[in-house]
Amino acid sequence: MVSKLLLASFLAFLLPLVENSESLAKDQNNKKVKRVVALTSLSADLVASLDSSVLVGIPGTSLTENDIRYKGIKRISSGRNQPNLEAIVSLNPDFVIGASGFHSKVLDTLKRLGIKTQSFKIDRWSNLINAAHLLSSKISNNGKLIDKINSLCPESSYLQDKKERINILILAGMSPKLSPSKNSWSGSLLERANLNNVTTNFKGNSQFSGYITMSNERLLTVNPSKVLIVNPSGSHNDQYSSLSKFFPNLMRSDFIAFNYYGLINPGSLQSISRACSKLQKL
Known about the structure:
Blueprint: H1 2-30, E1 36-38, H2 41-51, E2 55-60, E3 74-78, H3 85-90, E4 95-99, H4 104-112, E5 117-120, H5 125-138, H6 145-152, E6 167-172, E7 178-180, H7 185-192, E8 196-197, E9 211-213, H8 216-219, E10 226-230, H9 240-243, E11 255-258, H10 260-263, H11 269-279
Parallel strand pairs: 1-2, 1-4, 2-3, 4-5, 6-8, 6-10, 10-11
Antiparallel strand pairs: 7-9
Helix pairs in contact: 5-6
């Protein structure tokens, strides 16, 4: 009897400690980050859309240099160069966001230093939404980011019959000529715009995940209604003369220049919006 009373007293003493421990763990998990370094222009944009006051470091790119939201925020990289590790650490961040693969080495080092990190691979629309959800759980916000993103590129509701979709060929660069499979950002944008990607099921390899190399022989096997030409270097030279021989039924107006940011690389919410708007007008 005495032992039962002692056990009951011990459990009564222990229960508040367990509850307090669980409450503390829950508070720690729900704790919002206060100092964020974004290693990509897209992650910087997502964070700024949630709460720009927490951003303490961003990449130096053409997409961030003229954005007034980033005025006075330290640049921790330039162009496609790897970010400066010392510059990141000096900012005393409690959260660093980068791109899977490209920033793996830097993020692993920061993790060993005790800094929380997160990497994203935004290679399709669903991954962008997932990234927005995760960041929304870590950064104080008004809960409107997901709606904002979906409004950038509304799903088209016309021409639901796949046979009636416009056939689109995307050529990202000319040497080599790369086209997206279904496992790519641009492939997911075409699907969202209800456009038929003529290379969606093509098999092949290239150094760029989700894209396949298009040989001249392969170009002759597709029958696009429009050809979207993307030059990653940024210059939109007229490629009609070099491509028209593969598609004699197309007119010059069927060859359309697109920006690299938005269609191939998401880049920023604004560049995504521009690409989607242009796709929906095809």
